[in-house]
Amino acid sequence: MKQAGFAAGDKVHTYKYLAICGKDYLRYTSALLNRPSLTNIKILDANRPSVLNLFVWLRPVAFIGVLLSVWQIAISRHTVHLLPTPVEVVGGIADLVQHGLLLKYVVASLFRVTWGYVLAVVLAVPLGLAIGWSRRVEMAFNPVIQILRPISPLAWIPIAILWFGVGDLAAVFLIFLGCFLPLLLTAINAVQSIPAVYIDVGRNFGLRRVDLVYRVLYPAVVPQLIVGLRITLGIAWLVVVAAEMIAVNSGLGFLIIDARNAGNRYDLVVAGMVLIGIIGLLLDLGIRSLERVKSFRWSYSED
Amino acid sequence: MKSLAEPKKWERYFWPILVSALFLALWHYSVIWTATRIFPSPLDVERGMAELLRENVLWGDIADSLRRVAIGFGAAVVLGIPLGLTFGWYPPVNQVVNPTMQILRPISPIAWIPVSIIFFGVGDDAAIFLIFLGAFFPIVVACVDGVSNVPSVSRRAGRNFGLAPWQLLAKVVFPAALPQIIVGLRIALGIAWLVVVAAEMIAVESGLGYLIIDSRNSGKRYDLVVAAMLLIGLIGLTLDLGFRRLERIKSVRWGFRNES
Amino acid sequence: MEPFVTPAAVDTKLRVEHVNIVFDRDGKSTPVLNDISLEVGDGEFVCLLGPSGCGKSTLLSTMAGFLSPTSGEIKIDGEAVRGPDPRRIFVFQERGVFPWLTVEGNIGFGLFKLPRAERERRIAYYVKMVGLEGFERTYPPELSGGMKQRLEVARALAVNPDMLFLDEPFGALDSITRLIMRGELLRIWEAERKTVIFVTHDIDEAVQLADRVVVMSARPATIQQIVNIDIPHPRDISSPRYLELRDGIFKQIGLAHKL
Hints:
The complex is a heterotrimer. By secondary structure, chain A is mainly α. Chain A contains 14 helices and no strands. In chain A, helix 6 packs parallel to helix 9 and helix 11 runs parallel beside helix 12. The longest helix of chain A has 38 residues. Chain A is globular, with a radius of gyration of 26 Å. The relative contact order of chain B is 0.12. Chain B is globular. Chain B is mostly helical. In chain C, helix 3 packs across helix 4 and helix 6 crosses helix 7. The longest helix of chain C is centred in the last third of the chain and has 18 residues. The chains are: A mainly alpha, B mainly alpha, C alpha/beta. At the B-C interface, loops of B face loops of C.
């Protein structure tokens, strides 16, 4: 069909043109929409020959290469050799693998993030939905939430150590704290921004309270919740690194502070940072794949 | 529809005060019931707060923290907005730079501490650098998103009126992206406030974060620890409220219609 | 204005008795509906017509049970309305369809009490009735405005209600689609004979569709006049009787119909 030739921005014109066709209008829109949708036209547009695709991929990689070589040259020209070159960082990572520390530290960090994050999700999301459901409850809890929220999770470190001692529990507690309030606020906002129409429709069809929550409230908040979940996972990853630098003796954060304190092994410091970056990126990509599920992907901005 | 009647005026004060009071009471009595010697009750914290105010160290610490945030956040704004606008305006540039940013972004600013100490030594500059790092990436990302979400209709309208590319950027694209950019700035300011506390706990010897770690290490003064935490919360809240005022300015408010 | 009495042969479906509504916001009270009384017969198609913001949608929401009147009462089948009920479905402008459900999912939304086979049969029947075959698994964001509107009507009809409340259902559609949709609605109404209360601010729309047009004044709304549209369907919109009735309403509202 010819429609593939339209750019995404031309949607309006296509529409108007078809409107002129009068009674054929419905048939045409149907045909048009049957190709699954107008938004897909953009995707067709992006399907360029694979040689070009390769080139598109190559450029960012080349950019990273340039940055790395600038880094390498800058360090090797400098007389004080404190910061590592990229090559030394790779050597550092290899060192870690050899000593079996890489896997151990990565697992330790991920373990803490998983527990703290999951605990926060399980508690904060239902609580937030409940609070957001009623204006009065939301009003009542607002001041407490607003004052606790801007306190850096790291400021809780002394208290975490007091309650849980130096160890995994303290780190998990800090991550939990870092995730809990952002998730709570996301859930509250998500409930409050549900268009009243959806609730009305649910009540009109005779849904009881439980069904209303399960079949209207929950699906209606999912898109916003997923965005909140993604942002919060990022926070969890930031907090775990910081917590490990202070409160425990393993993990990637500990690696960084330990490598520095025990003999200025800056190659290991930077190796730790690179690992943190890559794993954080992978976590983000993982949770982004959730956003692609079709029944999650709509948003209110549509209308 | 959710709660049948609009809350009355007295309820607007009654419920928050009730819950806050219950919260304080719960805290107070759990300290008494558990008979802990170390963890402070709300009254201890209040006394601690008064002590800090009397000794005049508090204002210095607050000023130090705020100064670091102002400089670090300011630098992130000054560098981040133009860079973000450029990346958003030229998608090919964004495509090249984006993967690098995506790898740097999830690195906790705190993880940069050893490196920043090499660059700047122990002191203000190191802390400011960390705050800059924490605020920079969210600002850039918000600008890129803001610019690329400007509807093409607006751009076409601008071109139709014969605007040159830089005029288009200044008169159409930037104002259109502004609501999203401001949201990004607010988030970045929140992060800056989180990072300054963490940085002060590790890299410098003044500020509210240092107050926390110092109160704990020199004599387990947990009343001062909690007092400092509350102060951090209050100041963070004030910063956030101040920024929200910006969102209410008429010329940027169109983007927030659906929020309130 | 005394309530309009329906012919004795038709049972009264809905009875609105001296309904007043006053909104109370921030200490200021605004009267919205002023002593509305109305009767609607079983299977009748009634249009509520009035200027934007006059309170006709408020009246409709009250009939559907989403709001309760400040004073007065609304009775359906002799029973006072206490809240929304699946026996009478409110059709919003197309924004009422659930974006997280497919076309099938939306139509089946109210059928959760039925066994699976029966549910699927009904979904298939109403998909066909509103002409959405081939889109069963499509999500609403990929449908056009007119299709979403038909989807919402299908979802309402699927639970086999005795009444439909339509709140400016075609307001957001372009004029061609709107014309087609009016035809579709009449076709469905003639097939199923539900009682329909239809809110609109479009005089032509009201005269084309309704058995009776209830003309309402600006806020606080009162019933100005009830016009019987005694033209059989399909209506010829250039016939002298049609023009006469339409012009009568134009005059009643105080509009000159010359540009």
